[in-house]
Amino acid sequence: MSFDLVFFGGTGDLTWRKLMPALFQAFRHGKLPPGGRILAVARDEQTDEQYRAWLHERFQDVEIAKRPNAAEFARFAELVFYKKVDLSQPEHYSRVRDWVAERDADTVVFFVATAPHLFTQVCLQLGAAGLNGPRTRVVLEKPLGHDLASAQEINRAVSSVFSESQALRIDHYLGKPSVQNLMALRFGNALFEPLWRRECIANIQITLAEGLGVGTRGDFYDSTGALRDMVQNHALQLLTMIAMEPPSSNNADAIRDEKLKVLRSLRPFTPETVIRDVVRGQYRAGNVDGKKVPAYLDEAKVPAGSHCETFVALRTEVQNWRWAGVPFYLRTGKRLAARDSQIVVNFRPVPHPIFPGANRANKLVIKLQPEDGLELHLMAATGTGVSEQLAPVSLDLDFGKAFASERVGAYERLLLDAIAGRLNLFVRSDEQEQAWRWVEPILNAWAADKENSGEGPRGYAAGSWGPAAASALIARDGCAWSEEQ
Ligand code: BG6
Predict the structure, then answer these.
(1) Looking at ligand 1, which residue's alpha carbon is closest to its atom 6?
(2) Rounded to 10 degrees, what is the CA torsion of 190, 195, 196, 197?
(3) Rounded to two decimals, what is the model's pTM?
(4) What's 282's domain CATH number?
C-alpha cells in the first residue's frame, strides 16, 4: 500500500522531536508500508537536501537507541522531501497538490503539526486545493481549541472539508502500549469483568505525574494550564477506557460510542462543586531529582503573577448503574516528585476479616510510565510467624520484558494507524466536545475567581506530590493517594 505523508509544520518541534523519530522507528523495524514518501512543508526556503541535512542534525538530539546510524539515515532520507509553503498563502497549497499528483498513492495523510490557530486555515485550504478526496486523511494534534466553542468551530471547519472518518484527532496517550493493554485487560480476559463494578471497587485513581517543569514552553503553557493540557484529553480518555461498557466489537465507532457514554455520564460540575471537588496548584521552587528548580513564576516567558495551574486534582463520579457512588480521582501535575503515571483500581476490603493484623484491600495498578506493566496486590500468608500473619504481596507483570522486541511507541503506532486508516485510537469530535463541555464549568469558576481577585492556585513545592489540599480532597472520603497508602 503506497502512501504519501505530509507534515505541515515540517520544521516544528513536534515534527523533529516526535514524528520523524517515530517514523524512523517504524522504518527501522520494517513496519512502515513500502512505497511511502514523506513531505515536510514549512515557511523556510530550502531544498530537499538541505532539509535532510537539518533533520540529520536534529536526530542527534534524539535518545541514542532511537538515533539512526549514517547508513540507516541515508536510506530513510530517500523517503523525505521538502517544500516551502506559507500556510497563509492559498496559492502555495498548489505545491503540495502538485507533489501529491506526481503519483497516485493509495493513501495521502496530512498531519497538521502546526500552531493550533492554523488548523482551520490549513483544512480549508486543503479543501480549496481539492486535497480532500476519498483517499485523503487529516491528522490533528491537540490542543484542539481552548474551550467548547473554539473546539466546535475547528470541528465545523474540518467537517466542511473532511468526513468524520477522514479526520483523525490525536491523543497520544491512546497510542501508548499500556493503554492498549488496558483494553486487552478488560476485554481480552474474562477475569476482571465480573469485579469491574461498584459492588467490588471502592475507588479509582488516575495519576499522570511529571517531574519536568514547563521548560521553554512557558508562554504556550500559561495560556493552557494543566486542566486543558492533560485533564480534558489524556486523563479523561483514560477514565473512559476504565469505565466504559464492553463494546460490541473492536470497531472504532463501537468503542468510541461507549467512551462517549462515559463522558456523558460524568457528574457535571457546578460553581459549588468546583470549590469542593477540584484542587489546583502551581509549583514553587524546590528540588527534583536532587536538583534545585525554579518556581513556575520564575520560568522563562511566564507572565508575572500568573494564575495558571500546573497541578489539578479532582473527584468525580460516573453516574450509571455500574459505577454509582464510586469516586474517580484524577490528578496531574508538573514538577511532582517523580515521572509516574498509573491507574490504581482499589477494590473493597474483605467483608469479614478473620486473620490477625492488617487486612489490606486488593488493588490493581496499571502502570503507564516510566515502565509499563500491571501489578496485582494481594494478601498472602508469610509463613514466618506462629500465627497466620498476612502480608501484602504483588504479582508484577512487566510488559516491556514480556514483549521487548515488538514494542511500538505511541506516535509510531498512531502514525501507522493513520496511514492504514485504523481509527480506534483517534478521538471522535463528539467525544472531544463532550470532554470540553465537562471541564468548562471548572474553567469558568477559575476565570470568575480571577476576576474577583481570588487567590488562584495553591502553591506546592517542586518535587512534592502537590498541594496538601489534594490529600485532603481524597482523605475526606477516607481514602489516600497510592503513594500515601
Ligand atoms: C502533552 C502535554 O500532551 O503530554 C505536555 O502537552 C506533557 O505538557 C505531555 O508533558 C506528557 O506526555 P508523556 O507521554 O510524556 O506522558
Answers:
(1) 229
(2) 140
(3) 0.95
(4) 3.30.360.10
